[in-house]
Amino acid sequence: MQYNLIVPGFFRRLACMIYEALLLLAVIFIASFLFSASTHFSGTGPLRAAFQVYLFSIMAAYFTWFWSRGRRTLAMKTWGIRIVKEEGQAVLPQQAFLRYCLAWLSLTGIGIVWALFDRDHQFLHDRLMGTRLVISKD
Question: 86 is in which domain, residue-wise?
Answer without folding.
Answer: 10-135
